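Could someone model WTA with this protein?
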Amino acid sequence: MTFTSAIMWLPSRFSFKFSVSALRRGVPPSYPHVVRRGGCNTAAFMPEAAGFEGVSGRAALQEFSVSNSEDFWAAVARHRLSWMQPFHTVQDCDLSRGRIKWFQGGMLNVSVNCLDRQVHIRPERVALIWERDERGSEVRYTYRELLEMTCRVGNLLKRHGVRKGDCVTIYMPTCPLAVASMLACARIGAAHNVVFAGFSADALAERIRDAQSSIVITMNQGVRGGKVTELKKTVDTAVQSCPTVRHVFVAMRTETLVPMTDRDVLMDEEMLKEDVVCEPAAMNSEDVLFLLYTSGSTGKPKGLVHTQAGYLLYAALTQRYVFSYHDGDVFGCVADIGWITGHSYIVYGPLANGATTVLFESTPVYPDPGRYWETVERLKINQFYGAPTAIRLLLKYGDQWVNKYDRSSLKTLGSVGEPINTEAWEWYHRVVGEGRCPVVDTWWQTETGGICIAPKPSEPDEEIVPGMAMRPFFGIKPVLMDTEGKVLTANNTSGALCIAQPWPGMARTIHNNHERFIETYCQPYPGYFFTGDGAYRSPKGYYQITGRLDDVINVSGHRIGTAEIEDVVNQCSAVAESAVIGYSHDIKGQGIYAFVVLKKNMKIKEEDLYKQLNSVVSEKIAKYACPDFILLVKRLPKTRSGKIMRRVLRKVVESDLDSLGDLSTLDDPAAVQEIIEGHSKISMK
Ligand code: WTA
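Reply:
Sure, complex below.
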């Protein structure tokens, strides 16, 4: 078999056949003329607000968006999305029953909103800048080229039997073809399931099976930080246990040939045979756009479901207002498309707003710790959005790596995925942003679809407090709950963070498990959406996230359930049981600490056991889920009913022995003493 290498990785210069019918149905020639009636600068800030009687200023707009939620979202949805058929009902939601429906009756196509309408106005605007791992070799794709590529993939999927309602799994790093694949699914009405390309074959297989995909899209190899990963090989292993998979599309990122079977399709070659026009499917607002698996507090990852109109609208509105994005800006979100941040702020939000969005394939330290800032200078990035873990790492390398490069293009700096400590926040603000760029610490989740709490939008002169997400976004009404489930109304208080009313961006269900969706998010505080996080509300009413309330830990911004790791550790033949906790780690935010009890009479060298445990965790989940510390113990602290007391383990690891609490309820209080002694021999440095 012959290989044509990397054809689709360079923009083709094919003449563009315009999909006129799609445009006629989908795209108004320009936004409707807005009559100014509201507050004077409010309408300039948000044109729709001109129709909101008596609303002046951003705080008033937020207030209006919550108290007149339907009016607010109806106006925004009409104004910012292109509909094939208008919606007749703004919302039909009942949080207590887990029923969430927005913009019913409306029909649209997400790829038309992200591509065709830009092509109609500015076909030659750059949609994607692919910042390849090899520094200085970036590739630009215009909106016209991205639409063309998307149509070809859409037609290829159709030719291989993908129909409306099917789900396609995408196992690719951040790259243009991954974006085109996501949009191609949206174009033909299929759902996508992007699986982070760092996941193991087992983790991938579990997600393919749950999504029942017949097609998997991957690459021969991935390239990141100068290292090659064998993506196709991982897919080959995964699909052995996935009977639903009929074809694997393989794109070429490197020149290396990989073994191909009859099941495999050479994507670059086959795409060239396809037409550059692909009629967009008319989708209902509540049809599924994608599944995205994330960790919860049980062993099984949950496939959160996002739908078409509400998700797209929310991603677009937050991208525009939290980051003060303006037409023509270059938006640089350096996340991976395998996570929700990549979905909302690399792909859907920026493209729906006609932005130029950066696809960052590399790492913050490759080939040196100046990589981000050199990229900012070369690509003239205006908004930079990254993770605290990377900021903490770069801070340690010193200011010279930042100062070497011109960052005058930067206007807003964003942070996401985990709490950002004050030191990192201040360095980001003072050194990276030269004290002139607002830093927005954005709180949200896979479940929320887009940013829910962030310092912006706010009036230009309003304060931003380091390390605080601060202000709810439009349409978001956060509440704090006490342990009895009562709403805490006072300020300067902490509680469980819930959201009191539905918003268009929220997840609708868990794929194939609506019961679990209701149990996890709707039942803990009936009538409210429970986030799983705790928060503090300051005397001035600002929110600060204090961390997870469940058994989910956050390693370098990656969510992982302790139960998921325990399930895998317990599969080792030598292990009787285990308990995994997160502890505070200066770079990763949280590290993983595993307490392991061996089976009776088990003789195994500690070293061998550690090796075995690490390899099984990276084989079954991913490398980032490997424990940093493993402590062999004789028994675990348990209640009399057999529940492992992880709280006690956390206190021991935090050396907070004074607040171990009442141990008399433990089955065997002496177990704690043993653990304290064992832990004292471990150096956590
Ligand atoms: C945590 C990532 C503190 C939080 C977008 C949440 C944060 C989980 C912040 C979601 C923040 C996210 N400050 N904690 N600014 N942003 N988190 O689903 O615990 O990967 O519940 O979504 O990350 O992680 P997920």
